[in-house]
Amino acid sequence: MPPTERERFERTVLPHLRAAYNLARWLTRNGQDAEDVVQEAYLRAMRFFAGFRGGDGKAWLLTIVRNTTYDAWKRAGPAGLTVGLDEDTPEVEDDALGPEDLLLQEASRQALMEALEALPVELREALVLRELEGLSYKEMAEVSQIPIGTVMSRLARGRKRLRRCLEERSRGGTA
């Protein structure tokens, strides 16, 4: 990679290292695996950076991180794959308190992390991309390679299940 191209790569991609690790950590549920995924994703990003035509470097990198994670799961066999969601069932968000409000009012940080980790990967991924990384629905659709409607559905489902889990924990139950 020529020096000017390397500098452009560093300016575009390196600032998003924390976001890359954050997504990989929540998807893999393991710090060491997340580090491996991020390292491989950065190597892929460097290799294919000449094809990057501008735009949002964060969304581009997170797409690579996500794909790298899923590729690792495919190589690992059925143990690394998750059960698919029923995409035909529409979910409607209600006006009840959101997960953030519940966190502030009732749940500890640890309870929130445990509840988020307990979610299926598709729902966890949607919540991490939106709530922790601040991606738009359009960016989430690009990263996840799914339609915006599916992004919205997964986000609504994830919020609902997270809310339910936190409510159960606050009542002393287990989720």
- Backbone shape: elongated
What is the CATH-assigned architecture of the largest domain? Answer: Orthogonal Bundle
How many β strands by DSSP? 0
CATH topology annotation of the largest domain: Rna Polymerase Sigma Factor, Chain: A
Low-pLDDT parts are 81-94
Q: Mean pLDDT across all residues, rounded?
A: 83
Fill in the keyword field for this structure:
single chain, 175 residues, mainly alpha, Rna Polymerase Sigma Factor, Chain: A, Arc Repressor Mutant, subunit A, 2 domains, 9 helices
Describe the protein in words.
It is a single chain. The protein folds into two domains: 78 residues, RNA polymerase sigma factor, region 2, helix turn helix motif (Rna Polymerase Sigma Factor, Chain: A); 72 residues, Winged helix-like DNA-binding domain superfamily/Winged helix DNA-binding domain (Arc Repressor Mutant, subunit A). The protein has nine helices and no strands. Helix 4 packs parallel to helix 8, helix 6 crosses helix 9 and helix 7 crosses helix 9. The protein is mainly alpha-helical and 175 residues long.
Chart the SSEs and their pairings.
Blueprint: H1 3-13, H2 17-28, H3 31-48, H4 57-76, H5 99-105, H6 109-118, H7 121-132, H8 137-144, H9 148-170
Concise account of the structure shown:
The chain has 175 residues and is mainly alpha-helical.
